[in-house]
């Protein structure tokens, strides 16, 4: 039988976290995944996905590296969180990435997530959009908590008592994020996953050469964009440290920002630009936004 639709972190007896199954897998398949996790490790989100990487020298082209069961793992012995991909057929871990406070994890479409890996840009192509959404939310939550802990460590010490000389702090007060003066009013677009289905990957083996020749539709550049250069800069021209590159901004995006009343100062502010970038990614990414702008232009009076 299949596991129920319950998703998200769950607590068992004595407040201990329980492994969260994927509703795409049979009960015994979920159990096999749990056994592969290792000692004192818990999966907070489980799904089925393909791993894509933009390996050098073709760093502008996505290449499929395999598929399997994807888990967001709380690794207690290592005191950290990891995204891990397991091959059920071979019963082994095939790939992992540790979550850091600097990780830029983006949902380019409802089913395709991208981020800088250890060696190159990487992407995850999910079977199920609901599980992809839950996975994204949990990853973002863990990254934000890590960022908050780091910010607390960098806060200046309390002022010294009277008659004592003040000590210098290496870190200044944390900057408060600014909010954009304008808001982007766009209609979201439905983009379906053309590449994988749960039935096709029953048992989750890596596709054979003969299966690859059956003419299935590949992920298109229009759907997910080309992999960005390995500089933590995304395909919309945004950098987490410097904001948007206003000198090389996409013309359609520049028009959109102008109509929304967003200034260059806001686009280059790290905190404000992240809010804008997150909104664009939430609409399905740059290509989806541009397509919606074209549609609105065609039907405008």
TrEMBL record:
Pfam families linked: PBD, WH1
Keywords per UniProt: Cytoplasm, Cytoskeleton, Nucleus, Phosphoprotein, Repeat
Region listing for Disordered, in residue ranges: 1-22, 146-223
Predominant cellular place of this UniProt entry's protein: cytoplasm
Biological process according to GO: actin filament organization
Domain (WH1): residue spans on this chain: 37-146
Location within or outside the cell: Cytoplasm, Cytoskeleton; Nucleus
GO cellular component: cytoskeleton; nucleus
Compositionally biased residues, Polar residues: 175-200
Domain CRIB: 224-237
This protein's name: Uncharacterized protein
Organism: Gopherus agassizii
